[in-house]
Design goal:
The protein contains 13 helices and 14 strands. By secondary structure, it is an alpha/beta fold. The strands form 4 sheets. The protein has a 5-stranded mixed β-sheet with strand order 4-1-3-2-5, with helices on one face. The chain has a 4-stranded parallel β-sheet with strand order 6-10-9-7. Strand 13 and strand 14 form a beta hairpin.
Length: 350
Amino acid sequence: MSTRKLRNLLSPEELRARLEAETEPRVTFSFYRYAHIPDPEHFRNQCYVQWSQLDVFGRVYIATEGINGQVSVPASKFEAFKEMLYAVDFMDGMRLNIAIEAEAESFLKLKIKVRPKIVADGLEDETFDVTKRGRHLNAKEVNELLNQDDTIVVDMRNHYESEVGYFEGAIRPDITNFRDLLPVVEDMLADKKDKPIVMYCTGGIRCEKASAYYLHRGFENVCMVDGGIIEYARQCEALGLENKYFGKNFVFDERLGERISEHVVAHCHQCGKPSDRQLDCANEACHILFVQCEECAEAFNDCCSTQCKEFIELPEDEQAKLKITTQFNGQKYGKALKASMLAKGQAKLD
């Protein structure tokens, strides 16, 4: 069967009208599983045909190393879809992370794409087996290990994620992407290969790959927070355990963060006051991600600089002319790098 035919050809307007016509709520959730998939294209086609029958919408990536998806399904069909997933051997028992605050219009159609990897890592080592991962830890086990003096805790997220929340004492490398993070952490821990290492990320997919990689590189005792920060916080609340995560958990949607504890560990990039209010600069030509307190938000009109504030106050036709030749913070450094430099005082917001 041709892959070209296995896609939705409705226009955006038709897709939105179809969603708005639905009369029952949808369940939105994410999932992933590392596994050996010999023919990702064939598996992709099978999934598309079967899932379309249950009106599944979402974005799914499939590779020879596994599957990673964020989807929504009508509530009445959730159990049927769950059974369909678990009927596949390597997905049986896979964790489904149900969204707490799902957007009703998160997805308009089903997109399933075949990619080289479900998490880009820059590795070319054919002897590396991503399925030979480290040990999963539940919240109770995480707390027990964190109470040990020789435990090393590593944040496997980007620096703008760890800026607003982290486990106390965690190593938080100043890195923008996972590809660069793997070798940096390996170098940092080169003389600690026999120590207990606990890694964590948002939902588990990055530190699971990292745990397998470090075991492959000779580390002896590598563990990970099962289900990431999301599941750890859920278990702490459900079981009445001490929550050792401070601050917010950065999330990649419009909210930009979920509060895990009342601690505010970040600071406003403009005035330096305690704040973990992350936002994109209101100037669409800049759009840099940064931390800004409420007072500075009012003073700068949700912009990262005086330059951006003055720019968005111009008439739209003048903005259109100027943005061709004007350089803003986001264009100079990119979201994450600029945010890091500002937090360290290495850059100045004009």
